[in-house]
Amino acid sequence: MNEHNSIISTGRQEFDRELGRLEAELILMSGLVEKAIFDALQALKNRDIKRSQRVIEMDDHIDETELEIERYCIELIRRQSPMAGDLRRIVASLQIAGELERIGDYAEGIAKISVMMGNDPPLKELIDIPRMGDMAVSMLKRALEAFMSRDADVVRKMNADLERDDDAVDELYDTVRTDLMKLVKAGPENAERATYLMWAAHNVERVADRAMNIVERALYQATGEMVSGNTQIESENA
């Protein structure tokens, strides 16, 4: 290998390490977000106000992590001038960090709802909302795994699997809303506590939607295809 090729190889290896660091930061951020959702729902269910307050405080750390990833992505683009797949990898990472930050906001929102409820027990036993949360967090984990695989076939299969799971979360959300509306009709004094739980359920439903956005970003990284709902556009050659 001549000197020129050696320099190119060394540069490529360094760039690959930087891309690996970027993905490691995304995994770290995803772990923070998953914990925030879990803690927020457990605090809501168990009426643990202190735990809810910790989730609210943790959101600042999640926001800071998102900003660090954003700065790192911009710096990589500035220094490396990446093309094709490398550029898609960085852009998709930047977009996914934004999705994770929004999921962190949903966790914070659930925690704030719990604080507003104070020591009052939930209007009904919390079964469906935690189930929604478990499903949504599972979707998030698998969407990130698909992204890390960078395998088009894996991502397409995961996209189809998550679409089915998203439908299931939506069905549970509809069930929660229907049940709460029945309780409000049976006793108008239940309206405030029902509204709190509807807000919480809505936030969980949005986590599942953000997981779908992430797997769409994974598809963009792997293939260059831009997906919006059922509309798929070829943005560039893979």
What does this structure look like?
- By secondary structure, the protein is mainly alpha-helical.
- It has a single domain (3-234), classed as Methane Monooxygenase Hydroxylase, Chain G, domain 1 (Up-down Bundle), CATH 1.20.58.220.
- Helices cover 84% and strands 3% of the residues.
- The chain contains six helices and two strands, in the order ααααααββ.
- The protein has a two-stranded antiparallel sheet with strand order 1-2.
- A hairpin with a 2-residue loop joins β1 and β2.
- The radius of gyration is 21 Å and the shape is elongated.
Descriptive labels:
238 residues, Methane Monooxygenase Hydroxylase, Chain G, domain 1, elongated, disordered C terminus, mainly alpha
How are the secondary structure elements laid out?
Elements: H1 3-46, H2 49-80, H3 84-117, H4 128-149, H5 152-186, H6 191-223, E1 225-228, E2 231-234
Antiparallel strand pairs: 1-2
Helix pairs in contact: 1-2, 1-3, 1-4, 2-3, 3-6, 4-5, 4-6, 5-6
The CATH superfamily bears the name: Phosphate transport system protein phou homolog 2, domain 2
Q: Note the gap between the termini.
A: 29 Å
Q: Do you know the CATH architecture? A: Up-down Bundle
Overall outline: elongated
Rg measurement, Å: 21 Å
How many runs of DSSP E, i.e. beta strands?
2
Short summary:
With 238 residues, the protein is mainly α. It has 6 helices and 2 strands. It has one domain: Methane Monooxygenase Hydroxylase, Chain G, domain 1 (Up-down Bundle), CATH 1.20.58.220.
